[in-house]
Write a structure and sequence with these properties.
mainly alpha; 68% helix
């Protein structure tokens, strides 16, 4: 049985707004502040680490609540194409050494394919399980090798899918998985301050957990325009920030 949800906590609309705010702070630091002269604090990149786990959590939630999984997947694929084409055109016209490689939609699309494979394994039998395993392994491999979220996205999907019914198991598995992957990725247990806080603070994904636990299971504000707000906001805000950074640097 699914866990009971109550009226306390944060609904999906407000949780996504919080993630969007953290996203802006991170991208302003990445594409504007580092191109300006001045000792801007490195910790401005930290809030961005909690964004993708929140959206991967809603990806798994969306799989079980959407009216059409096919339309959901095609929407993610379509927006990933828009993001890729728009970013390529922008960088072609206004080249920058930083580049513009962000495309969370592509990461989420292959995350959704991974969820499809996991669901087939869980629900099916015989050849159905084999097909699900093939889909899951293929989606995980593509995610790790070719998407922005990489292995962290795969980790989020696995934890949020299999532990979705028990928050305490989700919490332990998520924290342990993120820390283990981060430590291995940074070269082992002998880590320095610079590695943890300056070069690759990806382990700070663990701080997405309190926000996920605060989610009350409710959709919240759901006007028709709000359904596409998050799809439009991501590329538009990123392109605007990139352009501001470009003109500052040039």
């Amino acid at each position: 049985m699914q866990e009971k949800r109550n009226g306390f906590g944060i609904d999906a609309f407000w949780l996504k707004l919080i993630a969007m705010l953290f996203m802006v702070i991170d991208h302003v630091h990445t594409y504007i502040l580092i191109q300006m002269d001045g000792p801007f604090p490195v910790f401005l990149q930290y809030p961005g680490r909690i964004v993708s786990p929140i959206f991967f959590y809603f990806l798994v939630e969306g799989f079980f609540h959407t009216r059409s999984r096919l339309k959901y997947g095609m929407r993610l694929l379509g927006w990933s194409a828009v993001m890729a084409a728009g970013s390529w055109l922008l960088v072609s016209m206004f080249p920058s050494p930083i580049g513009l490689h962000n495309n969370i939609f592509l990461s989420l699309f292959f995350g959704l394919i991974l969820v499809v494979g996991l669901h087939m394994i869980e629900q099916g039998g015989g050849k159905f399980v084999c097909l699900g395993l093939l889909i899951a392994v293929g989606a995980a491999a593509v995610s790790i090798l070719f998407t922005e979220a990489s292995i962290y996205g795969v980790l989020c999907v696995l934890v949020f899918y299999y532990a979705r019914k028990k928050k305490w198991i989700l919490s332990i598995a998520y924290m342990a998985g993120v820390l283990l992957v981060s430590i291995v990725g940074l070269g082992g247990f002998q880590l320095s301050y610079e590695q943890l806080f300056l070069f690759d603070p990806q382990w700070m994904m663990i701080f997405a957990l309190p926000f996920i636990l605060l989610y009350n299971g409710k959709r919240g504000y759901s006007a028709k325009w709000s359904k596409y707000l998050f799809y439009v906001f991501y590329p538009v805000h990123l392109w605007m920030i990139y352009m501001i950074g470009y003109f500052i640097a040039n």
